[in-house]
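User: Hey, my collaborator sent me this sequence without any context and asked if I could get a structure. I don't really work with proteins. Can you help?
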Amino acid sequence: MSGFPKPEEFPSQTQRGAVVGLESKMELKPEFLKQESDEGFSTYKAANKLADKVAIVTGGDSGIGRSVAVVFAMEGADVAIVYLPEEEEDAQVTKKYIESYGRKCMCIPKDIQLEANCKDIIEQVVARFKKLDILVNNASVMYHTENFTDITTEQFDRTVKTNIYGTFWLTKYAVPHLQKGSSIITTSSQVAYAGSPNLIDYTMTKSAQLGMTRCLSNMLIKKGIRVNAVAPGPVWTPLQPAAMTEKQLDEWHKSPAPMGRIGQPIEIAPAYVLLASPDGSFIAGQTIHCNGGKIVNG
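Assistant: No problem. I've predicted the 3D structure and written it out in structure-token form, which is a compact way to encode the shape of the chain:
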């Protein structure tokens, strides 16, 4: 049986109004490790591409972040996952999987909206592991808002502080610890190119992340530090139930990618392995589009 349900088979299971979306509360869990589909995919196969590397993955408790953290561990990396305290239950599941592959997992429950927290995250990781090789800026918040005038100052402030300020501060404090061969990867989105009318504030932040990726790549490339982004399309994660009402979620499921379905986190995570590993040694300042076939410019 396919692990990728057809649009009409997805349960609504909205978590709108919650502080955060929790994978543990999703009736249909995202696939973060196994690929079971009509296309014949199977479990991710590792090849020791990140042996003894140290990585930070923000939003590593669930969704794409969980999948990235777990496959990084499968590839030989020790991983620090950053998440909100409310997401502890999800984070412990990620930790269990990372440690099951013989790697160390550092759990850091901190809100990246605060500069002091971002600085502390980097300092904690370097103090424990004595180095830092990979930074994955993945944590984001998103709110589906039908009318532009309904975007409140509180919503806008949280979206910008989490998605832009957090990404900026974590990168700022990580860069001094990165060496030749290190990698910075940011999770942008296809909406930065396509322009979703119901995700204006979110789209603004995803576009800003692309600008930062390109500028920072031009600055750090001479030091041998590669900076890239991944732009997922529609992917089943806790971000959607937390952002949408039942009606909005139902409509989202009925508007899949050109492949005819919604993607899964494990279909996105290998792009991060490519960008973090020597396999991506000639890729810098770029964005990998994992969106199920949607053609976008840029």
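In plain terms: The longest helix spans residues 153-174. You can pass these tokens on to your collaborator as they are.
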